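#random but structural
TW: two for the price of one
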Amino acid sequence: TNLAPNLPPFSLDSEQIAQALGNLIKNAIEAMPDGGTLDILTQSVGERKIQVKIQDTGIGMAQEILSQIFEPYYTTKDTGTGLGMAIVQRIVTDHDGEIYVESEEGIGTTVSIELFRET
């Protein structure tokens, strides 16, 4: 974990952001059934933006899966509703943020969230 020590204050719904990050961390852990590394990184990007990255060394996703992960009820798991990533995306966009996902099969996945500070 690499958390930037001096992030600027932001106005956020802490419960929603906690839910979004919890969903992402849960997904990352589930993507590493044989163990692996989970990294959480934060950083300031300029004066108006912070970035949070959740990186895992899990099984990764094929491009056809990656293109559907924000679709409600889409899942590749045996259990669950397929709503986790749709909820994460909604929370991020409700905060006027952006979310990006990069993944490579056998290598892992990185989810980046960028949140903007009000001026």
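TW: number two ↓
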Amino acid sequence: MADSGRLVWIDMEMTGLDPDRHVTLEIATLITDAD
């Protein structure tokens, strides 16, 4: 796989840290280059 220089940023809002008890409320993603 070629290195495209892209970065993927992921921000998640959850009700807690335990995946067995808590749920994801919101996910945001942003794709940028190295600059």
